Amino acid sequence: MSTGQDPIPAATREFAGLVLAGGASRRMGSDKALLQIGSERLVDRQVRILSEAVGDPVHVGLPFGDSVAWPLPKGAIPIRDSQPDCGPLAGIVAGIEAAASGRLVVVAVDLPRIHPDWIRSLLDRSRPGVGVVPVVGGLLEPLAAAYPRSALSSASGRLRSGRLSVQEWAREGLEAGWLEPWTLTAGEAEILLNWNRPQDWSPA
């Protein structure tokens, strides 16, 4: 999947990539993974972006137990949510468990402005055992973040107890020290604008 044109820094090769594409897309009314941006589906774009940033393979997070209703991006590896109807936390748990490197960078499928340089900037701020979560206006952005292997225990515990908020889980990570914040300026925060509703989407 990588283009091979630019060497991937060793620091980013330590990370596995995960595109979270298991959501129900209820507000959009259709599967956000299949929305077109230019000549690509969003899911193809996100896999390509992560591949350019961290190398192959890139995982695509899918709902628990469901069959895939659309072709996966070439070279992508599907993984299933670790439990049904548990939101993105279940996908992140499955992603950390599948990450051979033990470190995971997560990108939601509905973030059309994410690009490889932004992901590299995110990962440059991480260090062994400590991930990074962007902060915009005091709110965390845990669906465009980097996680260490040490995050798995608390995420799994929250799943078992039904505490599914990724915001609360990420704040727990900041308090415990396995996450550090990256506060974005207003201009930087535009990278994380997402497509939730039909009026948000633009094929350009």
Structural overview:
- This protein is α/β, with parallel strands linked by helices.
- It has a single domain (10-198), classed as Alpha-Beta Complex (Spore Coat Polysaccharide Biosynthesis Protein SpsA, Chain A).
- The chain is built from seven helices and ten strands.
- It has a five-stranded mixed sheet, sandwiched between helices. Strands 8-7-10 form a three-stranded mixed sheet, covered by helices on one side.
- Helix 2 crosses helix 4 and helix 3 packs antiparallel against helix 5.
- The radius of gyration is 16 Å and the shape is globular.
- It starts with 9 loop residues before the first helix and ends in a 15-residue tail after the last helix.
- The mean pLDDT is 86.
CATH superfamily: Spore Coat Polysaccharide Biosynthesis Protein SpsA, Chain A
| Strand runs, count | 10
Tally of distinct domains: 1
- Mean pLDDT metric: 86
Helix tally equals: 7
Biggest sheet descriptor? 5 strands, mixed
Outline, from the CA principal axes?
Answer: globular
CATH class: Alpha Beta
End-to-end Cα distance: 23 Å
Portion of residues within helices: 25-40%
Main sheet: which strands, in order across? 5-4-1-6-9
Strand/helix succession: HEEEHEEHEHEEEHHEH
CATH structural fold name:
Spore Coat Polysaccharide Biosynthesis Protein SpsA, Chain A
| Oligomerization | single chain
Counting helices, strands and paired strands, the structural category is alpha/beta
Tell me the strand percentage band. Answer: 15-25%
Low-confidence stretches: none
